[in-house]
Every structure is written in C-alpha cells, then in structure tokens.
Amino acid sequence: MVGYDPKADGRNISNFEAAVAGSVSGLVTRVLISPLDVIKIRFQLQIERLSRSDPNAKYHGILQAGRQILQEEGPTAFWKGHIPAQLLSIGYGAVQVYKTLRDAVVTMYRTEGPLVFYKGLNPTLIAIFPYAGFQFSFYNYLQRICEWVMPAEGKKNGNLKNLLCGSGAGVISKTLTYPLDLFKKRLQVGGFEQARVTFGQVRSYQGLLDCARQVLREEGMRGFFKGLSPSLLKAAFSTGLVFFWYEFFCNLFHYMKKADS
C-alpha cells in the first residue's frame, strides 16, 4: 500500500509480506465490489436521465438496474470485464458491451487499431494523482480524528476504525474526482455504437474537452455525476475493504512470525 507504513505501529513484517498483503487485499476487494462497478458504468454511459420520468431511460436506480441486469443477462453479467479489471482498469468500460474479453480485444483492434486501447488515457492520468493523494490524505486525517474522538477502550478495535476511515476517505476522494471518471468511460467506448444500441442513445466525442462540453450542453451539470451513487458505494466499500484486508493480512503475518519465535 503506497504511502502507508505497516511497521509504524511496531508490527514485524517484511516489505515482501506488506506487498503480498496489498496485492491480496486488492484482489479480494475487486471481486466483492464488481457488481457496483458494472452498474456504475451502465449509468455513466446512459445519455438519458437516470429517472423513472424518462420513458427512454433503461436504468434509473441501483436496485432497478441490478434487477434488470440480472433478468436480462444473468448473474455473470455483474462480473463482466472482471479479468481485465484485475489486470488493468483501462479498457474495462469497453469490455462491458461485449460478450468476452477476447471478443472485445479483437473487435477493438480490427475497427480502430492499437491506439483504441488508450482511449480515455488523458482523464485517467489527470485523475489518478489527485485521487491517490486525496485518498491517503483523508485517510490519515480521519485516523487522527478517530484517535481524538474515540474513547480509550474503543481504540482496541483497530480494524473497525481502519474500515470506517478508509470508507470515508474513499467517498470524499471519489466525489472530488468523479467527473474525470465519467469522461474516461465515455471516451473509452467511443466507436462501439452498434454494440451499445440496446443501452439507449449514443454519442461520439472528439476528445476530453469536447466530451465535457457535450455532457454539459445536453445533460447539464448533473450529467457530470451520473452513476455517482453506485460509485460512492463502491468507493466506500472498496477503500474500506482494501484497508481492512490489508491490515488483516499484515496482522496475520505479524502474529505468525510472533508465534514461530
């Protein structure tokens, strides 16, 4: 976990064990929160309003979207794009509209060439640094608040504190950088209009600024935050679970060493 030192509180674990703990915590968390990621992306790509009052809107709420995806595509749809998401998040949105990873890769390469795999890279690079900085800054800040507010006997339950602080840091960080995530997804699926016709209207964008202008003109400021509710749930669960499992595995390695000594 970059920016977080598991040895700060005296735990005896190696850098390799810390790296393993971080990797496994990320793997487990991605499996658990994948359904929210799928729903979030469906919301982000929908041009129509996320409202029951819009008869053309395919999705209008988290529970409704979950039920509809389950009915139309089955439970495996909630893990569409899960393998490339575990390997690399770029291209995840495009895989959502295809049957398999292989189908997505072949079609994307044939239609637009190798550069298609880097669509949405600009907003990704712009967002990644402030998001990581916000996440760890707010995590440490919330940790200090908990230390000040929580009574002495409550401090013994460190895992719960880490879960709550991690969740709060994830929610704040995701909200501040969310519009860039929406732009990234819109740009990534550009050129796949035929595969997306069942999801509603489609648009073509010439770049990051053009995407932002079109969203603002057609969907208003609220358009920048489409899918924010499942995204916040995902961010809260994701960041909280990552820190929770990271601490869990770090403690596990520490106590295993302690037991052997």
SSE diagram, text form:
Elements: H1 15-45, H2 62-73, H3 82-87, H4 92-95, H5 101-112, H6 121-149, H7 158-188, H8 208-219, H9 228-260
Quick overview:
The chain is mainly alpha-helical and 261 residues long. The chain has helices spanning 15-45, 62-73, 82-87, 92-95, 101-112, 121-149, 158-188, 208-219, 228-260.
Could you explain how this protein is built, in words?
It is a single chain. With 261 residues, the protein is an all-alpha fold. Helix content is 65%, strand content 0%. The protein contains nine helices and no strands. The protein has helices spanning 15-45, 62-73, 82-87, 92-95, 101-112, 121-149, 158-188, 208-219, 228-260. Helix 1 (15-45) packs antiparallel against helix 9 (228-260) and helix 6 runs antiparallel to helix 7 (158-188). It starts with 14 loop residues before the first helix and ends with a helix.
Q: What are its keywords?
A:
261 residues; 65% helix; single chain; mainly alpha; 9 helices
Nearest-integer average pLDDT: 79
- The separation of the N and C termini measures 26 Å
Strand runs, count: 0
The sequence of SSEs as H and E is: HHHHHHHHH
Residues in helix, %: 55-70%
The biggest sheet, with number of strands, parallel, antiparallel or mixed sense and barrel status, is: none
Low-pLDDT parts are 88-94
Q: How large is the share of residues in beta strands? A: under 5%
Structural class computed from helices and strand pairing = mainly alpha
What is the rounded Rg?
A: 20 Å
Shape descriptor:
globular
Number of helical regions: 9
